[in-house]
Design brief:
The protein is an alpha+beta fold. It folds into 2 domains: 84 residues, Nucleic acid-binding proteins (OB fold (Dihydrolipoamide Acetyltransferase, E2P), Beta Barrel); 37 residues. It has 4 helices and 5 strands. Strands 3-2-1-4-5 form a 5-stranded antiparallel sheet. A hairpin with a 2-residue loop joins strand 2 and strand 3. The longest helix has 23 residues. The radius of gyration is 24 Å and the shape is elongated. The relative contact order is 0.12.
């Protein structure tokens, strides 16, 4: 496992220099002129990496090329002048081709419902979940300041008529 000393979030890549550790999903990847252009996604958003194939050991470059979109990766290396020189690359969880494109307008609602776990990966859904989390936290803090006590009851469900199960005898 790649050690996370000096961990950098994807959204902070442009501002950082020096040794960094990155952990995230491969969002997009393409090769051109001996360089690999990779977009990494994590909880902070998206970050662009330019990896010059001439500066990287062959085994590491092969691992980078094997990482498919959706794969979880951990990388450690040197970030300087817009170029990332990885020293270690680990594919934590390889990904197969996605069955649906969650960002596509053509994807049917039925496909989205069947594969709800993939929809959670979309940036739009992540934004909705972050807003929902902040809103619920603000409500909780307000109620706590007002003296309310939050309780965690067991599962509470509606009382329904048992139907034939509740009959003592059938006539």
């Amino acid at each position: 496992m790649v050690k996370l000393e000096g961990r950098c979030l994807a959204a902070d890549l442009r501002a950082r220099r020096g040794r960094v550790s990155l952990v995230g999903w491969v969002f997009r990847k393409r090769s051109e002129d001996g360089r690999v252009l990779m977009t990494i996604r994590d909880r902070s958003g998206l970050g662009e990496l330019v990896i010059d194939g001439r500066l990287v050991r062959a085994g590491i470059l092969d691992r980078i090329k094997r990482a498919t979109p959706g794969s979880a990766v951990a990388m450690r290396g040197l970030l300087r002048e817009g170029v990332f020189v990885p020293e270690t690359v680990e594919i934590l969880s390889p990904s197969e081709k996605m069955p649906i494109d969650v960002g596509s307008v053509d994807t049917s609602s039925l496909d989205l419902l069947r594969r709800r776990y993939l929809v959670l990966r979309s940036p739009r859904m992540m934004s909705v979940l972050k807003v929902q989390s902040e809103l619920l936290m603000a409500i909780r803090e307000f109620l706590q300041r007002e003296g309310f006590v939050e309780i965690q009851p067991p599962i509470v469900g509606p009382v329904t008529d048992p139907g034939i199960r509740g009959a003592d005898q059938v006539t």
